[in-house]
Amino acid sequence: MLPFTVNFKVSARTLTGALNAHNKAAVDWGWQGLIAYGCHSLVVVIDSNTAQTLQVLEKHKADVVKVKWARENYHHNIGSPYSLRLASADVNGKIIVWDVAAGVAQCEIQEHAKPIQDVQWLWNQDASRDLLLAIHPPNYIVLWNADTGTKLWKKSYADNILSFSFDPFDPSHLTLLTSEGIVFISDFSPAKPPSGPGKKVYISSPHSSPAHNKLAAATGAKKALNKVKILITQEKPSAEFITLNDCLQLAYLPSKRNHMLLLYPREILILDLEVNQTVGVIAIERTGVPFLQVIPCFQRDGLFCLHENGCITLRVRRSYNSIFTTSNEEPDPDPVQELTYDLRSQCDAIRVTKTVRPFSMVCCPVNENAAALVVSDGRVMIWELKSAVCNRSSRNSSSGVSPLYSPVSFCGIPVGVLQNKLPDLSLDNMIGQSAIAGEEHPKGPVLQEVHLRFLLTGLLSGLPSPQFAIRMCPPLTTKNIKVYQPLLAVGIEWTSLTGFLSFATSTPNNMGLVRNELQLVDLPTGRSIAFRGERGNDESPIEMIKVSHLKQYLAVVFKDKPLELWDVRTCTILREMSKNFPAVTALEWSPSHNLKSLRKKQLATREAMARQTVVSDTELSVVESSVISLLQEAESKSELSQNISAREHFVFTDNDGQVYHLTVEGNSVKDSARIPPDGSMGSITCIAWKGDTLVLGDMDGNLNFWDLKGRVSRGIPTHRSWVRKIRFAPGKGNQKLIAMYSDGAEVWDTKEVQMVSSLRSGRNVTFRILDVDWCTSDKVILASDDGCIRVLEMSMKSTCFRMDEQELTEPVWCPYLLIPRASLALKAFLLHQPWNGQYSLDISHVDYPENEEIKNLLQEQLNSLSNDIKKLLLDPEFTLLQRCLLVSRLYGDESELHFWTVAAHYLHSSSPAAVGEAAPRDRVNNPLDICYDILCENAYFQKFQLERVNLQEVKRSTYDHTRKCTDQLLLLGQTDRAVQLLLETSADNQHYYCDSLKACLVTTVTSSGPSQSTIKLVATNMIANGKLAEGVQLLCLIDKAADACRYLQTYGEWNRAAWLAKVRLNSEECADVLKRWVDHLCSPQVNQKSKALLVLLSLGCFSSVAETLHSMRYFDRAALFVEACLKYGVIQVTEDTEKLISAIYADYARSLKNLGFKQGAVLFASKAGAAGSDLLKELESPKLERTEE
Question: Which pTM value belongs to this model?
Answer without folding.
Answer: 0.85
